[in-house]
């Protein structure tokens, strides 16, 4: 079943590649069907997942590279636990949303949807892989579709931004490969489950070096200060759907990697550096929020708010306790839905007004009430209003991190205040206020695909906000074993 | 007379030499260019069949001609690799040799060069190694200059001068080895080095440094790389293809043979010394090649620097020795196999583009995706492979080589890998910039073109190889492992 989820999008991409040229417009339907089926499968995976059962479930496994004598055996092994199941669901949901908001793409339609589906497979592969080399393969596989999607279908300085994204990611992941190889040699296996069961105690190079090699890739991806500078550029110049995927699922690969690989395999080092990590996290939260306040471009604003919000993820991780880790995992899911929705809304505004400059926009609520209301709801969720999903995640993070890192936590709480500031201020400037004659002709979200994408994301935000246990039980079952290892190791 | 009965041990090389002579004679008799091309191809097919026959007849493991040559899996691995590359070059030469009048000579020289490299891969004696190596080199000097225009002649001359110095250095190193061990046979030298007399240590180190320096010219590693960019750019492109794939493979083959069979691999008292030497070569080569490649605008010149950088990656496998393990050697072999498919794809694309638009300037590749989608796709795929991005063969080749280094358990090799992976990030910039120009930029005119049928076939084969070895690498890894094990 996991293999089917992994291969469905890429199968859709192949179908699109085989479409005759004069039926290129059908590519979007193929993409919708493929990502829709994948989403249905991800729901099925989520439902069938049993939180009470220990270990990985629904495992698919075969030996991919059999060269044991040559010291290089790589498995193809997929499996889910309580940590990856929500990520799989998130990938399925956001991919459908990304396809839907792309329905008006007319430039090189076939290629666009094919690459979007390849991207879904690559990201899904990262969340499902249980072998370090396989994980690394999918991690790198995501680069090509992202690069092309930004540089062909983006706007502004798209080629510069795409290359910046690419080089940052490659530089980070290159070091990760070194860390993986040393771990694999030391333990004699690349199998994540086996490595987790018996973490290495020494290696050819200091374990602290391995820790930072691997963290380099994840911190760049997350991203946190000072390796975040690729993110605003990539977001601003990417097409809407790619921003949705980038903020919604790609950033989560960083947090996921730390939780899945770094903490269980190098618990002692995580313990040694926890204060430093918390410091980086707290600083990122405030720094990101302050920079957000100064943004004049709607999309850049949402992008910088991501830096701030992903800081919470790292803060929860640095707490190293079950509560903080759960909060981090929950924050990844909720940030995915909330920021994904925010990017959709910004994209809808931009499609109509053809500008994202906050100073030029005003009184849009009069012209597009639906977009305005949804934007306000998404904004409230982002600033952590109770009843919406962002609140649950942030409170859990703070509860978890207050004990071990009181200073960083108190510092980071001001991020919430700042978030309230920049979100309400933006809503006020863009949506409320007197209607501007220049925008008299704008229409509301009137296409069914726009409304479906918005609706789906709203449902996810409300459900998790009102009844968080639907997620927290699952996440708890995945986090508990990790937290146990970390506390034993520390 | 006894040795005549053993000629079947060198059947592939002998076939190639006979074929070269026949090609020369046929060139006099026939006026049609394609005749000699077919004849050259036929020779390569027969030589391949001979090599297959050697496998089936159970020859592997036997040495012959007084121990000067051996038929083993290692030699056969390179024989098949070299024959495949030569065949590709022969086929693509109908598109890529427009500047060249002397077709007959070209094929004869190509076959001779292949023959001596095949022999080189089988050689187990310093004298035979030197003779085979020099035959290869001299033939390649002529090949580089075969177009008889200014650039090609300059390339030939530069290649000749550097080559001559390298040969002298190599011979000096061989003389040291002979003086120490009292024999030119690699097994004899292995016995001497294996004894590990500490007072000979410095002399042995001096000898292998000289040998590595002499062979560094063939492998194109820094600081013996100065000829590469000029020769790559100036030679006719099929010759460049042959140099970058076959000649480099030949260089690494003989380095492996000398250092594993002759100097005892990772087991001896000097193993760590030469491992560290290759680690330095590797780090310097990849860094120099990548940094210099960033500036290049000419496709062939860029590939020259890329070739230096990739030699650095391969040399990581040379540095990865520890104990009796041949993992590093197998990594070199696996990398060379995937590199052959990848670089053939790149160069055949360059030939196809150059034939149609008459330029090797990378900026003229703008919009190639719309002008000739097939070529653009294969070239992009191969560039991804050179960068080391999945799902291509180059990704696994890099991971495998780096893994072999990590598995020695030496910390300084891990730091070498750190240098190597950071270099990967640099190389991504110029490889992917080239791909970007093809895919994103607007073409200057609307001219579209299609490569010839044979070229298309070769391109598809190369692209399929790059993908196949990226997804199903086990057979090639297994072959490389078995070949490496026969070295010691």
Summarize this structure briefly.
The complex is a heterodimer of chains A (490) and B (488). Chain A is mostly helical and 490 residues long.
The global form of chain B is globular
Main sheet summary of chain A: 2 strands, antiparallel
Quaternary structure of the protein = heterodimer
Strand order of the largest sheet of chain B: 1-2
Quickly count the domains of chain A: 1
Shape of chain A: globular
Radius of gyration based on Cα positions of chain A: 21 Å
Unreliable stretches of chain B (pLDDT < 50, length at least 5) are none
Instruction: Please state the structural category of chain A.
Output: mainly alpha
Strand content of chain B: under 5%
Count every beta strand of chain B, where a strand is a DSSP E run of 2 or more residues: 2
Write the layout of secondary structure elements.
The complex is a heterodimer of chains A (about 500) and B (about 500).
Chain A: H1 2-18, H2 27-48, E1 57-65, E2 74-80, H3 84-101, H4 109-128, H5 132-141, H6 143-153, H7 158-187, H8 192-197, H9 207-221, H10 230-237, H11 240-265, H12 267-272, H13 274-293, H14 298-319, H15 322-353, H16 364-367, H17 369-382, H18 389-402, H19 406-430, H20 448-466, H21 469-489
Antiparallel strand pairs in A: 1-2
Chain B: H1 11-29, H2 33-56, E1 62-64, E2 69-71, H3 73-96, H4 103-122, H5 126-144, H6 150-181, H7 186-195, H8 201-219, H9 228-234, H10 237-262, H11 271-294, H12 299-319, H13 327-357, H14 368-371, H15 373-387, H16 393-406, H17 411-440, H18 453-471, H19 474-485
Antiparallel strand pairs in B: 1-2
